[in-house]
Amino acid sequence: MKTFGRVITAMITPFADDGSVDYEGAAKLAKHLINHGSEGILVGGTTGEGAVMSEEEKLKLYDCVIRAVGQKAEGKKVPVIGNAGGIDTAASIAFAQKVEALGADGILAIVPFYVKPTQEGMYQHFKAIADSIHIPVILYNVPGRTNASIQPATIRRLVDVCPNIVGIKDAAGNWDQVTQERMLLPEDFMIYSGDDSFTFPIIAAGGTGVISVSSHIIGEDMLAMIDAYEKGDVKKAFVLHMKTYPINKGLFFITSPIPVKTAVNLLGLPGGKFRLPMVEANESEKAHIVQMLKDYGLM
């Protein structure tokens, strides 16, 4: 079984002033993240604005991050997951195979958005992707963006026939769903919170950790919360849940990744520019982000 860590950062993608990908900045940011609480890196996802990047750009970015943190250095190898899912099964397969060839440790595959497949359609889609590669697959369920949700029973069907489907990023925000997943799925199946503020409930229900946005700026506290819970110090974990909650909710007051990318830039890290349709925070939004960082003690 692959282990991807407890805090995986869904990393933003820095863009230069001319709109090109800042690969040097991405490598620098990835290194910063693993030194500040992140145990794994996800590249090219929603937070990374992967939907507005070309296939060539994404593959170059994945390779860049793998070279920066995913190769053994000083005895440490950081798992790197490449986002490879989409609504076109054949295209997702072709891209997943290229991500595997780069040396990624796994792929993330989203529930197909817009087309609203049935549970059988989701089953066939994910099975085809998993069967086409050898590296692990993490499913991504985010009904708020896809308008469709994979059910625990469907996940169980997939796990029974696809040994490389090893986890899920669950952003359904549904306690019943997570509980049913834990009841139906093998003990070593990894359930990650896809919503930072829902991390504490998910680990309480037997989850693995979080694929996080806020770990860009509070990764050490997020890891400390999970670590405390694992060690049986539930009170400390709850205190950290309450401490991190304002950031975990606050970074989503407008569409992500606008707040987190703005925050990263404000803290002097390589956040970079946005690509349309994402835009810079306006003055009032930026002021709100500044206040949030000050309230947490980050500025």
Question: How would you describe the overall organization of this protein?
Answer:
The protein is α/β, with parallel strands linked by helices and 299 residues long. Helix content is 47%, strand content 12%. It contains 12 helices and 8 strands. It has helices at residues 23-34, 55-69, 89-102, 119-132, 143-146, 152-161, 175-184, 199-204, 215-230, 234-250, 258-266, 283-296; strands at 7-10, 40-43, 80-83, 106-110, 137-141, 165-170, 190-193, 209-212. It has an 8-stranded parallel β-barrel, surrounded by 6 helices. Helix 4 links the parallel strand 4 (106-110) and strand 5. Helix 2 runs parallel beside helix 3 (89-102) and helix 3 (89-102) runs parallel beside helix 4. The termini are far apart. The model has no long low-confidence stretch (mean pLDDT 95).
